[in-house]
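General statements about sequence and structure are easier to judge against a single worked case. When preparing material for the folding task, we compiled for one chain both its residues and its backbone structure tokens. The amino acid sequence and the backbone structure tokens for this protein are reproduced below:
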Amino acid sequence: MHIPSAPTDTLSLLSFDEALSRSGRTGGYDPARWLYVPDFYTEYRYLLGTRGEHPLLCIGVNPSTAAPDALDNTLRSVERIALHNGFDSFLMLNVYAQRATRPQDMDRTRNETLHRENLLALDYALQACGTRQPPSVWAAWGNLIELRSYLPGCVADMIALGERYGAHWYTAGRRSKRGHPHHPLYLRKDSPLDEFDVRAYCRLLAGELQAPQAALT
């Protein structure tokens, strides 16, 4: 269980670039296998995954306790499904980078610095997919996207960034009645990836979710 020690705007945060440049220096894991940014356990996590030539990018709602060689059940499911669908690695990112085992404990208001650095992490991951084919991005944040009013805006920014790289978006498992992608936990290891119309989903976020989200700020 990870309960945030304080709102992230009261903490000293490493930028993504600085954290990336230090990655692999500490932590006692194999940096040839793992990418972990920052590479130590702290109140936020930009990126966690395995290195390969054909990664699947997965975007959850926010990180919990997972670390290299100590994946939680969600990340183990992500790795299994990535491998089953023909990818040789996975890169896990999140809509919001604050660690909180219970998403209900996330910041009440968006930390703009943390959000900006999180987008830089996504930009790095999209580039890591190479140029031979468009990046494959698995939307996996579940209904938890409704917990904070700022989360739909974070998703919209990530989708816009993905469009710059021609990203192909997918979901796994049945989407909710409100159109949200399924969370990775409890999915079958042989779950296929289904194409996801993120432009239509952006319209949903901009329209239907505005009213219910306002009360959750």
